[in-house]
Structure formats: C-alpha cells, structure tokens
Amino acid sequence: MRLSRAGNNCHGIQGRNRPLIEIDGGLRGRGSRAYIHSGQDNDARGSSLAATATSTLSTTEGPIDNKPGYDRIAVLGGGISGLATAYYLAKLLPPEAKIDIYEASDRLGGWVDSKKIQVPGGEVVFEHGPRTLRPHTHAGMIVVELIRELGLEDELLVVTKNSESARNRFIYYPDRLVKMPGPGQDFYDMAWTVLTEDVFTQFWQAFGEPWRRPRDNSLEDESVGSFLARRFGTSHIGDNIVSAVLHGIYAGDINKLSAKSLLPSLWHEEKRFGSLIRGAAFKASRNMKILQVRDAVLDLTIKNQLAGAPIQQTLEDASVYTFKNGMETLTKALASYLRAMKNVQIKTGHPINSVKYMAETDRIKISTGKNLPIKPYAHVISTISSQALAGLTDVPGQFAKSLQTSLQAIPSVTVMVVNLFYKQEGLAPNGFGYLIPRSINFDQNPECALGVVFDSDSTQGQDTVSGTKLTVMLGGHWWDSFDTYPTTEEGEKMARRVLERHLHITESPLAVNVSLHKDCIPQYTVGHTQRMQKANTDLHRAFGGRLAVTGNSYNGVGLNDCVRNAAQLVGQMLFFDAKPEAMPNAKPNATRRPLGNLKRISGLEFKGSDYWMVLEREDGTEYIRSGQ
C-alpha cells in the first residue's frame, strides 16, 4: 500500500487534491486499480480501515495468532445482531478467548421468529418478523457468504426475478391496488399507468429536477419528505409512493425520517452533481457507480469471491429468497454453531441490570437479574436497542446525562403482525403484496395498516397444504401517540376488516396468529448521523472504548444490515493496526491484533462520515476515484 494523490478533475468530476489510499494485491481484481478517497483529509486512514473490515473477515482463514493476554468478551442480546457478532468473534478468536452471550428472554433470534402451524391437511409457516432477503445488495452478499459457511444452501427457497411475486408489487391508492412499474413490464403499459393512475399525480414535475437549485451547504440534514419535495417540486411523489415504501421498511413517517441516513446516495449525489437526474445521466453515460467506501470494497472483493460458487449460481436470478422452514433457520444455525464452541456460553433468561466501566481496572462490570457474581469483561458489545442500553449504563455523573441523551434519542415504533391462512386458493392477486401510503383517506384505512404481504406467492414452497396465506402489518408511526395497543382479538378483527375492504375477502381463516412487536423498528429521524457521531464521543468518554454497539438502532434496520454491521464491527476490533502500511496488501496476519490488544472502538466511528468511491469501467479497468 502507498499513499498517493489524484488530479483535480477526473472525467468531469470536480475534486481537490486529497489524500488517497491505493490498494494493491488481494483487494483488487486482475488488471485493475483501486483508489479509496476520504471526505476528510485527516481521516483517510480511518476510512480505509472501516472499508476493508468486512472483506478481511471473509478472506481470512483460521483464528488470529495466539499471543498472551486473552480476555473475556460479553455480547448483550441474542437476536440476529448478537448471534452474528458472536459468530464472527468465535470464528476468528483463538479458543482461549471466552465469549458470553446474554439474552433476556428464553429464546434466541430476536425479531426473527418462524412458527409452524398445523392446519387441516398439513402445516403452514408463519413469519412474525422478516420473511425474505435480497441477495444482491452489498449487505446481502455478506449474508450469502454466511449462509454458505453454515452449510444452509439446500434450505434456500428462491423467488426469481421473472416471477409474478417479483414483478407484481402494488400500492393501494386511493381505493384500489395499483401495480407499480418495474422490470419486465411493457413500456407502454408502464407509461399508461403513470399517465392515468391518481397515485402518479404531478409526477411530471419531476422532469424539472435538473434545473432546481441544490441545497445550501449549511443544510446538514432534512426529512425524506422535505428532500423529495424540494428536488421534485411536489410532495405527491413522496406522499403517494415513497411513504408507502418506507412503511414497508421502517413503518415510519416520511416527514420525520432522515434523508441523509435513509437516502445517502441521493443525498451525496445532489451535492456532487447539483441534481439527481443529472447525476444519474452522468453515471449512466460512463458506466459508473458512486458507492460508500465499504460497499465499493465489497464490489472489488467478496463479489468476486462468490462468483462461480454454487450458492451464487443458485441465487443468480433471485429477486429475494427465504428458507424452507422459515427465516429462523438462519438464527438456529448460528446458535447451533455457537453452542458447539467450547469457549462460548449462551445465557438465555439473563436480563442485564447494569453495565459499568471500572476505570481503576480498565474493565467493564455487568450485573444480571440472576444476581450472580460475574467476572469483569475486557470488552462488551451491545446489540440490544439503544434505548434499552441507555437504561443500563452506569457511568460517572459528568458523562451520564450526555450518554443517555445520545442513546435515548433514537425512537422506535411498534408494529402488530397478523398472519392469516385460508383454505381457499387465489383470494389475493398474484404478486408480492401491497403497501399503503400516508396520503390515503382515513375511511380507506382506519385500522392504520401499513401493508399486506401475499405470502402464498412471495414464499412458495414452505407450506405442505394449498391455500391463501397473508400477512397484515398494522401500526408503526401511526401508533406513536398510543398509550395502549390493540389486543390479540382486536388485531385479528382489524386485519380482517382491512382484507375485506381492500381485497374483498370475506371468508373465515383456518389459522390466525397475532404478534405485537413493541419498539421493534428504530427510526432514523432527522439529525441521526449527527447524533451517532455524538454517541460515539460519549461512549468513548464514558467507557474508554471498552463498550461497542451494533444492531438495528444505528446503521440499518434490516437483517442483512445487522449481519453486515456485526461483521464490520468485529473486523474493526480484531484486524487493524494504526499504521496505514499494515493494511492487507501483504499477508493477512500482518494486520491482526493479539487478543489482549483489541482495538478500542464504539462501533459508531464512521457513522455519518462522507466516504465515497467512484467506480468507472474503461477497457476492463475499474477505478475508484475521489468523492465526497
């Protein structure tokens, strides 16, 4: 590795002379060059460390070198983030390292919860949490690699890109299902939909976007709704379409959620090009991608590693995928792996009461509801929600208020999930399902539904009996002001009323399951990245870098995001020395830290930092150039 500088102008992209890191060897493909640019001159080294963390985890074989000073590590939370974190620790640390997982409930998996329900003639799988995964995102590639390592390839169920479930996705507006334009659809059909359906009202104003002024440099963040209205000259696109999409992902309010956090690429490209449409045209004309650093590194590493692997061939044409026995297949496999490790202890039914940093010994002491003596830990990794962690931290008075304010500033929403199975087939249209925008009239959605999934189409192959399987999602930000939530009986009635009004389903279901998930989806509201930067500082001050955080409170709410962030956190802790010349252009062992010298991090060091790469293809060569 060597430090170098780029020129002032690369194919029309303006950039000042800034320090770059040129990576040779294993991080690039044959006959290619790669440049990583940092948005801040004095952080070039740090950005490269963050970027390569995940790819290093995937390419390293065996545990780190044995050296004196082995320590104990505690992982708080046994959901997907906690299990993935413990998995990467157990995989890469020597067997002398002691890893304890604390889970308050009596089961592992967190929000990932699949249940087999007996019905006349067979059984059906009800998903109470996430139900499908996308394989071709950058975070998705990490999960695909994890599935391969766990030997779960034969458990996959794939929904192909040309299936009706992938091609038919709907929005309910104003009183009917409207099919969204998408791949594989005839151009004239798409044009007719856009021109005639009310949901696309004022869509034509988007064509004036290139001539609208970019945001002022002083604007650090704004809501997704404000950002879209400012760029496209109308609130209708956000209210009618994007709000529905965000209901499906975040169950959140488009006028509160952060544009910088949820739409980082668009936020960046407005600053870079002055216009989203001009930016898209510029990239298309040069076969270019602009990615955050860690995504660009994955483009150059793990994507090539997976190329040709059987699992990649299985998922090559996949839109989404799931597992034959439900998503819990993944968390159960992780738990089985960890239980087989002699240096890992899984402690279910152990709620944490406090987390305290002891400056005199430079260790962290935790206490649980079991009131048993626990030896202090060298490092604690919290994967529980930020608000739950805020209530557990026991820190000196001068740090307490600041840290708790930072962690409590991430609100969450509550969602009720209602699974229904009907013996009759074909009760719902062929497709994935539909989402409901914020702009719909109250009389069309008094139950505060967020959307409906047509599970019979979206997860074919799980059930042993034919019929119609649906999932109704209720609540989210609509319930922010609620002091109490609907009961199980009320939830079933509400879901059935939604299906009767929207899909004209009057039949009685054979099986119903109602799950209330309190505070299940964190909300990245305006200013989230700034608050995470403050939380990073507060965690370091209060815990000396001994307490790190990951999980869906911070940098992505999806399962793919949680696994990817767990991998990156472990990579940052275990593999990187302070010297830039020790990056993995040499042997992987050169970058490994002895266990007694794990890097002190909070897990939030790079949240909100503007690290970007530009990938261009010219005559088979890939370049990563400057970008902020």
From TrEMBL:
GO terms for biological process: protoporphyrinogen IX biosynthetic process. Keywords: FAD, Flavoprotein, Heme biosynthesis, Oxidoreductase, Porphyrin biosynthesis. SUPFAM superfamilies: FAD-linked reductases, C-terminal domain (SSF54373), FAD/NAD(P)-binding domain (SSF51905). Binds 1 FAD per subunit. It is an enzyme of class 1 (oxidoreductase). Its main location: mitochondrion. One of its GO terms (molecular function) is oxygen-dependent protoporphyrinogen oxidase activity. It catalyses: protoporphyrinogen IX + 3 O2 = protoporphyrin IX + 3 H2O2. Residues 80-566 form the Amine oxidase domain. Pfam families: Amino_oxidase. Pathway: Porphyrin-containing compound metabolism; protoporphyrin-IX biosynthesis; protoporphyrin-IX from protoporphyrinogen-IX: step 1/1. One of its GO terms (cellular component) is mitochondrial inner membrane. It is found in: Mitochondrion inner membrane. Its cofactor is FAD. InterPro entries: Amino_oxidase (IPR002937), FAD/NAD-bd_sf (IPR036188), Protoporphyrinogen_oxidase (IPR004572), Zeta_carotene_desat/Oxidored (IPR050464). Its EC number is 1.3.3.4. Belongs to the protoporphyrinogen/coproporphyrinogen oxidase family. Protoporphyrinogen oxidase subfamily. Catalyzes the 6-electron oxidation of protoporphyrinogen-IX to form protoporphyrin-IX. This is Protoporphyrinogen oxidase. It comes from Coleophoma crateriformis.
